[in-house]
Amino acid sequence: MADYVAPGREIGFVVNELLDYSYINSLDDFTDATPDLTAAILDEAGKFAAQVLGPLNRTGDEQGTRQDDDKVISADGFAEAYQMFVDNQWLSLAQNPVYGGQGLPFLIHLAACEMWHSTCTSFALCPMLTAGAIDTMSAHASEQLKQIYLPNMVSGKWTGTMNLTESHAGSDLSTLKTRATPEGDHYLIRGQKTFITWGEHDMAENIIHIVLAPLVDAPPGNKGLSLFLVPKYLVNEDGSLSDRNDLRVVSTEGKLGIHASPTCVMSFGENEGAVGYMIGEPGDGLACMFTLMNHARVEVGLQGVAIAERAYQDALSYARERIQGRNVETGNIATIIQHADVQRMLMHMKSMTEAMRALAYDGGFYYDLRGHEGDVEKKRQADERFALLTPVIKAWSTELVNEVTSMGIQVHGGMGFIEETGVAQHYRDARITSIYEGTTGIQANDLVGRKLLRDQGAALESYMEEISKTVTILNNAEDPELKRIAKQLKDALENLASASRFIVGNAKGSQKFVGAVSYNFLMMMGYVAGGWYMARSAGLAADKMNEGSDNDFYRKKMISVNFYFSQLLPRHLGYRDAVIQGAELGVSLTEESF
Question: Is 143 noted as a catalytic residue in this protein?
């Protein structure tokens, strides 16, 4: 396995050129977060990732975690690395200064997170969930709870979890059996939760569980759900830790990948009841929890980018060193990177990862605008755009990382199938990303059922109008290469619009219709969106090369863009046909069809 090198030049290009970081920097809350400052921060984040987290990845995969009664012991080096993570204040990057945060844009936090997930996804999952829990509390908790819990969570001294799933209830949360009983100024929680990432561990002194559960007398269904903060250790008024709460880890799961991230079965209230404090209002639990889930969905999409980047780096390094066969042009003994098919696979991995990264970072861009834009209408538009992009970021990126990591194994040939090379770990670690935090099917139903049909395509139409502007700009360029890209993007945009119109026009015909078309529509939108970011990249690269700036980087960028448009963007046609021509068959399928 090659040593990880943070893709700082590529990240800087996306943040500062493709997404116009200067606009975020101009917002009142971010005027101190200059490009020079954020570049220095990300440079240090890359070093931390490579030097501290990178060496843990293989160790964590081999050792996993170990349960000892009510304790979960992390793999060697994890606790020490986490303390360094806290000491360096990495979790606080984009958090509110009121609670000890540094107040930087979420986009910068996202870029740093990519590096952490690239080097050790198992480790990075812990602060990822803590950041989501902080978001939820910041948006919905009482000021008293914020003052008691947020400073230590923002610092990373205490970690956070998300407790939704139960053994009988995965994505259907309306049937949860965990219950909350009022008890003075708090509630007593009783029940069991499964698949709780970092639900118990030895890296932090306290773990703050965010638990979804109905009150004992709540009405059935999602409207009866409430949200609770349930700490591992109770907290005194002065912030010091008190007694152990009535909760414990029952077991940890044996998994395909992310071995060093404990996936726990948690039991609440086996004795007197676990003390919990309500976040938000009774019955608003699912709405409050979506704050955490949407944060997690963007960061899981980013995991797709991060693991794909690591798989690409390893494949590229191996291809440059592995001697096999002869160069067909010179006849000399060759390294495999000289073979056309290996070059195809490497460029496939590179181009796909670049498109995924641009999409994920654009989500981060609008995350910042929705929270910090001063103009009310722009703020509304940013919130709408973030909501539209979130399911695509999560699902498209995580579907693609499975392809990229599989291709990384293929580049390694037989050695890729051997655990010694480490590339099989990327494949195993990536597989969960399209499942947890809402499967691809759930994301697709969200995109079509909630985002497209709720406003009859208005938010998507706004997004497509921006793509159309890029088409016009590139078409007006003198460069014939840009004109060709503009033509291909225009055709793809028209196909996306036709699929959208088909769905809006036919959705009322059958309750199964959304489920039958949503996956294919989401994948189509992902490829067209990726094409937009790559087309914009081409325009920027052409301008920079004309100026004589960093020609090697921009030359390679143009190659990557051209590969995307010639070999990846055409995939959207198959998904369009599956939406329009395959809907009738999809709707007609029954249990007896199999």
Answer: no
